[in-house]
């Protein structure tokens, strides 16, 4: 099994890479040319590294990138800086999601490829009746129009639910929505829910990056877990808050 991870040099992406390597998976990762991914990972025998900007890859390069992969993980996100939030590419996550999904579907593998998108608890699942207060709706409306990363995350999730859907025979997906991300040294108890248990704006919980990485690992490695969440957008919380 070969797994492609994009956004592998990010804070969560690195942990996903580590967790999958520990499970013995062969990995193909895309990192920026100036990536700070650790030298230990660069020399791992089960790791193939492609340096470059995913959005600049041609259709042929994307097809080669996903060829032979049974799972694709996107941990792409915007840097928390003025340039990262307001600079180009403003639709990084959405464009990468669309390009990867189209490349996967074009291969028409006999067994569906798993696609996992790391998203955010602030993104609503429009296919589910998730209750949101009026105040939160107002704030989300403002974020959608003032902060490009939030709009980008929304559109990426919407692409999976509306453009790919749940009946594609070549591609299955899960959009993982962790609550406020924190750094903890090791995996801890966590819970997954189909819809938020608390307001992402007014009562946000936390979710450690290592727990997100472990959830992604388990979705790839555990068929029953994948079958349960396929085509859905689980919310993740650390259990001890």
Q: Can you describe what's shown?
A:
This protein is α/β, with parallel strands linked by helices and 241 residues long. It has one domain: 3-Layer(aba) Sandwich (Rossmann fold), CATH 3.40.50. Helix content is 39%, strand content 21%. It has 9 helices and 10 strands. It has helices spanning 11-22, 39-42, 59-66, 82-86, 92-107, 134-146, 148-164, 209-221, 223-229; strands at residues 2-6, 26-31, 47-51, 69-74, 113-118, 171-178, 180-182, 190-193, 206-208, 235-238. The strands form 2 sheets. It has an 8-stranded mixed beta sheet, sandwiched between helices. The chain has a two-stranded parallel sheet with strand order 7-9. The longest helix is centred in the middle third of the chain and has 17 residues, at 148-164. The protein is globular and about 50 Å long. The N and C termini lie far apart (36 Å). The model has no long low-confidence stretch (mean pLDDT 87).
